[in-house]
């Protein structure tokens, strides 16, 4: 099989200006991405945005993180997993492992030096898995409504008997989504493969600083998930930020301001003051 070059013929515009570049994958597919270079070698840690389930790199949160990076002169990368947005592949062929592989590929091949991973919803789960796989590359984590272990904690418990029967019969279940015209699709393959990546059944040996943002009014991923994650993370520099009236997306202007403040503070080396002894 002949692989496509890393930067092939540009894709159609994704609606936010420049067309995305492509990173070729060994199966002949590609990952679409936008990369913002750092203005100088002494810039802050780079920022990598990881999207949620059925989301893409054109989201308000992804753009806000990119705008922050540009203002600070830092590098930024936003990308679409395969089967999402402008990347190759069918969504229904994807698994958490495949999308983690995409995240590691862009981290390895499109970034240099320490990176802060900013993960939204399922992207928070993938960011943690990436930090476990590349601890020397990840300088910090910022998550928004981290959907860690969502397949076992949220999706499976919410399947009614009709949905379970449909999943067993066809390998997929489709329901209307509150977030847009596209239906919410879950495949049996996705649910089964995700069991290989569960984290919250024990300690999570990620030691880098972490900021976990979650809305108390999130109808999709309970805010207690972020508390459970904070309790299990190995690092001492972990903070949970709860937004009283925040939903799942946390994409309103005050939410974006909160997100960018937390990312900037982490990039600046924000640390809690050491407790006095004696």
**Relative strand content:** 15-25%
Distance between the termini: 67 Å
Helix amount: 25-40%
Query: What number is the mean pLDDT?
Result: 90
Query: Low-confidence segments, ≥5 residues, pLDDT <50?
Result: 1-14, 271-278
How does the major sheet shape up? 8 strands, mixed
User: What is the CATH first-level class name?
Assistant: Alpha Beta
Structural class designation: alpha/beta
What is the count of structural domains?
A: 1
Shape: globular
Q: Number of helical runs?
A: 8
**Order of the strands making up the biggest sheet:** 1-2-4-3-5-6-9-10
Provide the CATH superfamily.
Answer: Alpha/Beta hydrolase fold, catalytic domain
CATH topology: Rossmann fold
What is this entry, summarized?
The chain is globular, with a radius of gyration of 18 Å.
Task: Describe what you observe in this structure.
The structure is a single chain. The protein is of the alpha/beta class and 278 residues long. It has a single domain (23-154, 202-267), classed as Alpha/Beta hydrolase fold, catalytic domain (Rossmann fold). It contains eight helices and ten strands. Strand 1 (21-24) and strand 2 (30-36) form a beta hairpin.
């Amino acid at each position: 099989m002949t692989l496509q070059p890393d930067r092939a013929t540009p894709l159609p515009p994704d609606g936010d200006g420049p067309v995305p570049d492509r990173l070729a994958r060994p199966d002949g597919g590609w990952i679409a991405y936008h990369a913002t270079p750092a203005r100088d070698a002494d810039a802050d840690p780079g920022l990598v945005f990881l999207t949620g389930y059925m989301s893409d790199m054109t989201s308000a949160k992804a753009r806000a993180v990119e705008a922050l990076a540009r203002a600070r002169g830092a590098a930024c990368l936003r990308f679409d997993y395969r089967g999402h947005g402008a990347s190759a592949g069918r969504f229904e062929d994807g698994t958490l492992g495949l999308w983690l592989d995409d995240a590691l590929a862009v981290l390895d091949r499109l970034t240099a030096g320490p990176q802060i991973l900013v993960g939204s919803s399922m992207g928070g789960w993938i960011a943690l898995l990436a930090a476990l796989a590349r601890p020397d590359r990840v300088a910090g984590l910022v998550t928004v409504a981290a959907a860690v272990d969502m397949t076992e904690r949220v999706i499976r418990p919410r399947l009614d008997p009709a949905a379970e029967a449909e999943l067993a019969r066809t390998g997929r279940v489709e329901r209307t989504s509150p977030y847009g015209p596209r239906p919410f699709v879950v495949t049996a393959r996705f649910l089964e493969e995700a069991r290989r990546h569960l984290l919250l059944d024990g300690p999570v040996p990620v030691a880098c600083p972490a900021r976990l943002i979650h809305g108390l009014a999130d109808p999709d991923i309970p805010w207690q998930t972020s508390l459970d994650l904070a309790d299990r993370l190995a690092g001492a520099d972990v903070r949970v930020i709860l937004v009283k009236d925040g939903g799942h997306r946390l994409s309103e202007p005050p939410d974006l301001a909160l997100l960018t403040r937390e990312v900037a503070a982490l990039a600046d080396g924000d640390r809690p003051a050491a407790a006095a002894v004696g």
